[in-house]
Amino acid sequence: MNGKLKNNEKQRAAERKTAWSLAEFEVAPQEGHVRFHDLSLPDALMRGIHRLGFEFCSPIQAKTLPITLDGVDCIGKAQTGTGKTAAFLITIITDLLENPLDEQFDREPRALILAPTRELALQIADDARHLTYFTDLNVASLVGGMDYDTQIKQVKGKIDIVVATPGRLIDFMRKREVFLDQIETLVIDEADRMLDMGFIPDVKSIERATPTPENRQTLMFSATFSYDVLNLANRWTRDPVTIEIEPEVKSSDAVEQKIFLVSADEKYGLLKHFLQHDDIERVMIFANRRDLVKTLSGRLKRDGFDCLMLSGEVPQAKRTSTLEKFKRGDLRILVATDVAGRGIHVDGVSHVVNFTLPEDAEDYVHRIGRTGRAGAKGKSISFACEDDSFQIPALEKYMGAKIVLEYPPEEWLDKQKGG
Hints:
Helix content: 25-40%
CATH class of the largest domain: Alpha Beta
Strand order of the largest sheet: 3-4-2-5-6-1-7
Number of domains: 2
Structural class: alpha/beta
CATH topology of the largest domain: Rossmann fold
Shape: globular
Strand content: 15-25%
């Protein structure tokens, strides 16, 4: 979704009063593509889609929407960035608009979306507000690390869609600020990450507070279909249809990938070379640990680079402002961990640098997917030393392609130590 579109209430009210018809949103049929027009969506939703500039469904939207719009449960295998967020939001919004309630009580949402990280939850909520721009539907985001009282105000009145991280939602449930017995659609996003981060006990408690699987629609998305994920899906869904979408970067040439073979001491000097000499418009630098992200960010600042970091130890308000600066283009260099970088949708990221190779091949795919978006070309530069070069064969096997391996020229390496 376009983060540049602002949800200014006065502007929204004025736009909603302006007459509009579907005839203003013309999209010619195109072979091999599904138009949003082909799905018989409500006009208010179509107007929101038109405002966002979308015309054709992404592959996962084209596969899931004909199923989920009929109320069928779905388990989707898809990475962030494939369009799955819009897929489940369009399903939810269509249901809410086409089946209004005669009476709806405060603090009782009709749809719940669970996400593992604050950034992803806030991104989903932002996307939901853009899609509901021309409707009367209300969206609340409940995430940890942000002001509790401000979030309570969001759920004081009628609320239709809640997007939440598990821990904060549990807090709201215990304090009886939110009731889940009227949930009609439950979405569990990035289920594999929920497992990795230890959130499943909370998710189980939340799921039990909603109507039974027979009395709600459940949509579950995961980057992997591990035994644990499928076991949970079996318990939480009813006769689901399974959809698998491979990450676009696996078969796309939109991202040029290179791995440089260096020693640990040479990594920082090589990083400086690329930041000073490569045609970098906006770059995300990934490292595996929070302490390394902090050290790396500090070194870059001391060497005169304008950069900020995104990790779990950064206060939420700071993380939000940092991400906004990066999205606006006011910040060129962002240093992040995998967890903090998840859910970031930013067009215009020209480069991704893997300062350390991730331990999981899927995390590598997720990282490099931050560039090469929206039809643009991108570059992925990775540094592999004696500690992580052994992971390269697994990456290539998962990607289904060879990655160019190079030794950097001596003049690219800064002789000062530091890795």
